[in-house]
Amino acid sequence: MDASSAQIDSISDNAFTSSTSLKQVLLRRNSIKTLEPETFQALEELSWLDLGRNELQIIMPGTFTANTDLKILDLDQNLIDTICPTAFSGAKDNLEAINLAYNRLPEELNKNFCLDECDGDIGEFWNILDALFSNSTDCLILQ
C-alpha cells in the first residue's frame, strides 16, 4: 500500500484491521504526528514500513511488537526525540534496517542502521538501545 504524500495527519488504531496481509506500507511525506501502539498490530506479515518525512515525535512502547516479519523500518526526517524500550521488541529478530537519520536524537542513534553499506550496523543499533535502557524501563526522552 502506498499512501505517500497523501496529506495524512493521523492513523486510527484500527486502520489496518481489514488489510492484515499487507507486506509494505509506505506513508512517507505526510503529516503524521503520533502512532498508537495498536496501529500496526494487525499487520503480522508487514516487512517494509516507511514513515519517513512525517512529524513523529515519540516511538511508544509496543509500537512494533506484533510485526515480527518487519525487515525495513524507515523513520528518517521526523521529529523523534523520545523512544520507549519495548517499541521494537517484536521486530528485533528480523529487522535488517532502521533509518533514524535527521531526527532529534543523539548522534549515535541519528543515522541509518542496516546489514550492509549504511552509516551503522543493525547490531550497533541494538547495542546502543540496550546501553541506553540498561537501568530503566521508562521512555528515553532525548531532547
Tell me about this structure:
The protein has 143 residues and is mainly β. The protein is 8% helix and 16% strand. The strands form two sheets. A six-stranded mixed beta sheet has the order 1-2-4-6-7-8. A three-stranded mixed beta sheet has the order 3-5-9, with no helix packed on it. The chain is globular and about 40 Å long. It starts with 23 loop residues before the first strand and ends with a strand. The model has no long low-confidence stretch (mean pLDDT 90).
Number of helical runs?
A: 1
In this structure, how is the largest beta sheet organized?
A: 6 strands, mixed
Structural class, by secondary structure, is mainly beta
Whole-number average pLDDT?
90
What's the helix-strand series? EEEEEEEEHE
What does the radius of gyration come to?
14 Å
Going across the biggest sheet, name each strand in turn. Answer: 1-2-4-6-7-8
| Helical content class | under 10%
Write the layout of secondary structure elements.
Elements: E1 24-26, E2 48-50, E3 58-59, E4 72-74, E5 82-83, E6 97-99, E7 112-114, E8 120-121, H1 122-132, E9 140-141
List keywords for this structure.
single chain, 143 residues, mainly beta, 1 helix
Describe the structure in brief.
The chain has 143 residues and is mainly beta. Helix content is 8%, strand content 16%.
